[in-house]
């Protein structure tokens, strides 16, 4: 069966890691017909928008997409292309599995946890205001997405929307995910002791939803204590479910537990469409140097193959990554440095992809 998939290589290291990912997917023998679309800073000049309609049309048609990181030009009318895509397709669940692999260069072993991040609400709503003077006592201007350049209000307010519907569907997603993959525990992460209305709502909804899943253990942790727990004993965690902003931060923390951003895959899932993408950004500091680690995008492709109903190919990709890392002779500079403090002997992005 042929699978139509939209491929957005993206900016920075995007094209390099996308090429490596394509070679790996081709090697599985699964028949993927790529529909290539350009988005990000690279098309902004020519198209006047970093997110042309053709990209939205392609994703709407293929229902499945994989993308490299995109940079969002300032003043382009977008706060973030990723946020815009997640909104456009209501990709409410961001799923980021973090699994230790031998040779990953991490100081931790036996990490096997999944971050389930709410993707549509919270401080990411991007509703921010310049506040009035204390005398005026009211909001005087809204900072909209067309505001060019840096925004430097003298005093500012950001809005944090959390709804019962938005909370329930992400928590339910986390429990269903746990159930379908034989996982045993779900941990709701919050700061309800301080943000009683918003995080309190998220936590209370989670407690209620948990009652529908008596076979899955449930606990709540305050985000700061949870971070400490993660760095002290990450093997103690299973499925984490978090509001958007904590999810963003804890995702990068968890990437650090398994060898860094170069290794952490992800998926943005909605009821209609899914977009697979690595946790990391466009890494402009190493772009165009054949130095990036494409593993995160390759493992995102494995998640995509699972989603497409090709679990054999998905496992083959994961096994190949595991083997190449364990062997340790064809690994990228980030991994080399983590293992030996030097990038000597590292291979490039393309050579690593080829090895996988
Ligand atoms: P964003 O705002 O999009 O999350 P960011 O500012 O957090 O972006 P990243 O682009 O994720 O930044 O990069 C953070 C650091 O990690 C950079 O030093 C970058 O070189 C490194 N990095 C990110 N991805 C990779 C990768 N795939 N391989 C090697 N190094 C990477
Ligand atoms: Mg980041």
Automatic annotation (TrEMBL):
<dbReference type="GO" id="GO:0000287">
    <property type="term" value="F:magnesium ion binding"/>
</dbReference>
<dbReference type="InterPro" id="IPR024084">
    <property type="entry name" value="IsoPropMal-DH-like_dom"/>
</dbReference>
<dbReference type="InterPro" id="IPR019818">
    <property type="entry name" value="IsoCit/isopropylmalate_DH_CS"/>
</dbReference>
<feature type="domain" description="Isopropylmalate dehydrogenase-like">
    <location>
        <begin position="4"/>
        <end position="356"/>
    </location>
</feature>
<dbReference type="Pfam" id="PF00180">
    <property type="entry name" value="Iso_dh"/>
</dbReference>
<dbReference type="GO" id="GO:0051287">
    <property type="term" value="F:NAD binding"/>
</dbReference>
<dbReference type="GO" id="GO:0006099">
    <property type="term" value="P:tricarboxylic acid cycle"/>
</dbReference>
<keyword id="KW-0560">Oxidoreductase</keyword>
<dbReference type="GO" id="GO:0004449">
    <property type="term" value="F:isocitrate dehydrogenase (NAD+) activity"/>
</dbReference>
<dbReference type="GO" id="GO:0006102">
    <property type="term" value="P:isocitrate metabolic process"/>
</dbReference>
<comment type="similarity">
    <text>Belongs to the isocitrate and isopropylmalate dehydrogenases family.</text>
</comment>
<protein>
    <submittedName>
        <fullName>Isocitrate dehydrogenase</fullName>
    </submittedName>
</protein>
């Amino acid at each position: 069966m042929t699978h139509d998939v939209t491929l957005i290589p993206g900016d920075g290291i995007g094209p390099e890691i996308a090429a490596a990912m394509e070679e790996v997917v081709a090697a599985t023998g699964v028949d993927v017909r790529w529909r290539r679309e350009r988005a990000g800073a690279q098309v902004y000049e020519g198209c006047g928008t970093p997110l042309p309609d053709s990209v939205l049309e392609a994703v709407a048609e293929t229902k499945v997409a994989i993308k490299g990181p995109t940079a969002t030009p300032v003043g382009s009318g977008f706060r973030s292309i990723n946020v815009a895509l997640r909104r456009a397709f209501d990709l409410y669940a961001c799923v980021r599995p973090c699994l230790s692999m031998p040779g990953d260069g991490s100081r931790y072993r036996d990490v096997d946890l999944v971050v389930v991040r709410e993707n549509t609400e919270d401080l990411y709503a991007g509703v921010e205001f310049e506040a009035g003077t204390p005398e005026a006592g009211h909001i005087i201007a809204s900072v909209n997405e067309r505001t060019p350049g840096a925004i430097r209000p003298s005093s500012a307010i950001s809005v944090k929307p959390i709804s019962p519907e938005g909370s329930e569907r992400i928590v339910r997603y986390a429990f269903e995910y746990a159930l379908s993959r034989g996982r045993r525990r779900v941990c709701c992460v919050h700061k309800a002791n301080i943000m009683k209305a918003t995080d309190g709502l998220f936590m209370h909804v989670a407690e209620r939803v948990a009652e529908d899943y008596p076979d899955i253990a449930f606990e709540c942790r305050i985000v700061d204590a949870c971070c400490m727990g993660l760095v002290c004993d990450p093997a103690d965690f299973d499925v984490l479910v978090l509001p958007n902003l904590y999810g963003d931060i804890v995702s990068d923390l968890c990437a650090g537990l398994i060898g860094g951003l170069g290794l952490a895959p992800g998926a943005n899932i909605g009821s209609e469409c899914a977009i697979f993408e690595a946790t990391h950004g466009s890494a402009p500091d190493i772009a165009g140097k054949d130095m990036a680690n494409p593993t995160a995008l390759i493992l995102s492709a494995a998640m995509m193959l699972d989603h497409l109903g090709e679990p054999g190919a998905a496992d083959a990709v994961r096994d190949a990554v595991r083997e190449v890392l364990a062997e340790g002779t064809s690994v990228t500079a980030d991994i080399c440095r983590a293992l030996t403090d030097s990038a000597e002997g590292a291979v490039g992005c393309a050579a690593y992809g080829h090895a996988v």
